[in-house]
Amino acid sequence: MKRRAFLGSTILGLSATTLVPARASAPEFSRNPFTLGVASGDVTDNSAVLWTRLAPEPLQADGGMDSSGVLVNWEIALDPAMSRIVQRGESVASSELAHSVHVELENLNANQEYWYRFSTTSQHSQIGRTKTLPDTKSQLQSLRFVTASCQNYSHGYFVAYEHMVKDKPDFVIHLGDYIYDTSFGATFRKHETEKRPETLDEFRRRHALYKTDEHLQHAHAQIPFFTTIDNHDAIEDKDPDKAAQRIAAYQAWYEHMPVRGFVGPGANRFDLLRKIQLGNLAQISLLDARQFRDKKDLCRDSMDSKFGFGNYRERCKEIIKDERSMLGKEQESWLINNLQNNSTSWNVIASPGPFLPFHFQHGGKDLRYIGAWDAYPANRKRIAEVVAQSSSGHPLILSGDVHSFWALDGSLTRDPDERIPVVEFVTSSISANWPEPLNKPVMDNLNNNPQVKFYEGERRGYLLHEVNKTEWKTTARAMQDVKDNQSRAFDAANFLVRKGESGFTQTS
Questions:
Q1: For strand 405-409 and strand 423-426, is the pairing parallel, antiparallel, or unpaired?
Q2: Can you give the C-alpha Rg of the chain in angstroms?
Q3: pLDDT tens per residue, the chain (508 residues)?
Q4: Is 197 within 8 Å of 210 (Cβ atoms)?
């Protein structure tokens, strides 16, 4: 599959209307079919994706719909009262795609707020808001956005999204684990079943459950999202024995996300790469660190399953092979090209998992987290060399996955072979917990890792980034208690990076 820069040209993913039969009806609904809300995403300077799904009975696999296609009208306007309509049309919501609707709008104005809604013959959706990105060649003075990841329905409310809306970001980058395949024993809010999803119907029900969260719906209706996939969203490696499960997971993920790049039912691939160019201010390369990577689950012979649930392991010979890759050759070339040819002030990588190294000393051995770039050292070294050699914008890395807040300065790593002149900010989870068997080994080894200048494993939340030409400010926005549906938020820490200067300072 050919990789292209996402901004400046539209990804030619198939829209829902090209994947469904033409036969459609206009039924009268006795109940609201828009129970899962509306959303926008994959915005560029002249386009956006609008999403909804018809599901009057959202927790049924078919959403309470029959097999008929349904005509859905949509319109987009310049005002929240929907009086200044600029585009309108209709799409077919097909049972083949769970009666989801993906409208790929084009010919929009750059850096423009829009409002939109969907309707059937008898019902209207709520009105959603979106915003396009600035013109790719504009002299952008500032921007604000959020990075988030890891929301487990059974661990707490998604109340963090309510505070995101109040922060008024231009967009959200969700780094994966939008759904969880398991509760890990938590029962605060129960999944529709404790069986891990494997089939298309099962993944559809899990996604629909998550979309019923009021805070998540509110955020989607107010802020455009960029999204990528992590291990709990789908099968994470290229395991041919689990191809059918990954195909089902990808399709259900598409059916519930405002995204492009879906090839079609039955395809075991998804075009997820996005280069988000924000005028001359910042370029963000959003990675797919799951779809093409080499096998993660290695080095089991010496694994201590009681230490970090077996996630922290000694690196065996297979881990350090030169050809081993987190990204795959095609994506790696795409990323290197982005890093080398950036023309903005900030040259950013957004990765689902942590990039910089972290050493665990345990039982006289040096262990690493098997789910991060530490398990792909050769691939990381190639990317690090490009970052070190490139003079095209100040480098930064934004990541998630580990349910805790981190701020790292890669130039302080003790091992010179792993020293990387880049700052990384890791967001905590929206709600997924960070249990003691994972947290304590990190706490016990902070003194062995001087590159970690801040760590907070007790709080859930997200990162708010406020950027201008010379400064990058990141705030760790933490929730008091995600088991409180009205939880307050507070700033756990603030960090400042100055363009052209090494490292960062913690300002509070």
A1: antiparallel
A2: 22
A3: 333 333 333 232 334 444 444 456 777 787 899 999 999 999 999 999 999 999 999 999 999 999 999 999 999 999 999 999 999 999 999 999 999 999 999 999 999 999 999 999 889 999 999 999 999 999 999 999 999 999 999 999 999 999 999 999 999 999 999 999 999 989 899 999 999 999 999 999 999 999 999 999 999 999 999 999 998 998 766 778 889 999 999 999 999 999 999 999 988 889 999 999 999 999 999 999 999 999 888 999 989 999 999 999 999 999 999 999 999 999 999 999 999 999 999 999 999 999 999 999 999 999 999 999 999 999 999 999 999 988 889 999 999 999 999 999 999 999 999 999 999 999 999 999 999 999 999 999 999 999 999 999 999 999 999 999 999 999 999 999 999 999 999 999 999 999 999 999 999 8
A4: no
- C-alpha–C-alpha distance, residues 234 and 219, integer Å: 23
C-beta atoms surrounding 27 within 10 Å: 16
Are 254 and 267 contacting, i.e. CB atoms less than 8 angstroms apart?
no
**DSSP state for residue 196 in the 8-state scheme:** P
Q: The pTM is what? A: 0.94
Euclidean distance between the first and the last CA atom of the chain, given in angstroms as a whole number: 45
Strands (E), 228-267: none
Pick the CATH number of 139-176+272-506 from 3.40.50.1000, 1.10.10.10, 3.60.21.70, 1.10.490.10: 3.60.21.70
Domain boundaries, the chain: 139-176+272-506
